[in-house]
Specification:
Length: 214
């Protein structure tokens, strides 16, 4: 077994004891972000499939998520960082009713490492909190994340509320239950400024942010 295979298996098994050693070994061959995107997220994909088909119970999914978080936290200091002035501010949140935050936190890490200021509000954020933060922080963009199907509806409702309050800050939407079509049709229609974009992954989020501030 290679360290790469062991890392994938550790996510599936929720086995974080001694994971640092495997991460160190893997880092001799791959940059930290590649380790996350390839081997760790591969494991999470398996977890999602097992859970979705009823072959894995929730407490074990939680162990996998914790293992993922431990690994990402260990790798984070080894990532390349862009120094210098902050290029712009984004307010990030997982929407109301949704606790999934691994994807959102990856977006945070990647944007932060690329010189943006990220105000990460956390999980289960009502739209009022998101709007307040966007105004207070003078955000250049707002990023909403959510993995549940019902979160896709909440995102659209949030945009309607933002329209009612006259906001026109660009909004990025991400999360596994979204589709590009839903974002570009239903969500764009819900937001008067029309400035809504779909982010398939964290790098998409980075591209969108770069387009907004430059
Ligand atoms: Co939950 N869960 N979960 N879960 N969970 C899913 C989402 C699910 C698809 C699993 C399944 O059934 N196959 C399913 C949703 C089904 C649906 O809505 N139709 C589900 C369910 C049902 C639930 C509960 C309801 C289970 C229950 O209680 N019975 C419950 C919900 C609680 C709640 O939110 N109120 C629940 C709970 C949990 C845990 C707490 C155990 C744990 C989360 C821990 C945590 O996040 N702290 C968990 C996990 C781990 C998952 C799966 C297995 C993995 C999610 C993950 O972290 N993926 C997930 C299965 C799946 O997604 N297929 C599942 C890795 C992560 C990096 O990917 O977040 O998609 P992701 O982020 C990607 C992109 O989407 C994008 O970039 C990231 C990197 O590429 N992205 C953005 C995301 N946000 C972005 C924002 C951006 C830009 C890009 O800019 C703003």
């Amino acid at each position: 077994e290679t360290p790469e295979e062991r890392l994938t298996q550790r996510i599936v098994d929720g086995d974080r004891q001694g994971i640092e050693q495997d991460l160190d070994e893997a880092m001799q061959k791959h940059p930290p972000l590649d380790i996350i995107n390839n081997f760790l997220l591969d494991g999470m994909k398996v977890v999602g499939e097992l859970f979705g088909s009823g072959k894995m119970q929730l407490p074990f999914v939680l162990q996998s998520a914790e293992t993922m978080k431990t690994a990402v936290a260990y790798l984070e200091p080894f990532m390349e960082k862009q120094e210098g002035q902050e290029k712009g501010t984004i307010v990030l949140a997982t929407v109301k009713g949704d606790v999934h935050d691994i994807g959102k936190n990856l977006v945070d890490i990647i944007l932060t490492n690329n010189g943006y200021r990220v105000v990460n509000l956390g999980i289960k954020q009502p739209v009022t909190a998101i709007i307040e933060a966007a105004q207070k922080e003078k955000a250049d963009a707002v990023g909403m994340s959510g993995l549940l199907v019902k979160s896709t509806v909440i995102m659209r409702e949030n945009l309607e509320e933002m329209t009612r309050l006259g906001l026109d800050v660009p909004v990025f939407l991400g999360g596994a239950a979204l589709t590009r079509k839903y974002v570009e049709e239903d969500c764009v229609r819900a937001y008067a400024s029309g400035r809504v974009a779909y982010a398939r992954d964290a790098f998409d989020g980075l591209d969108l942010m770069a387009r907004v501030v430059n």
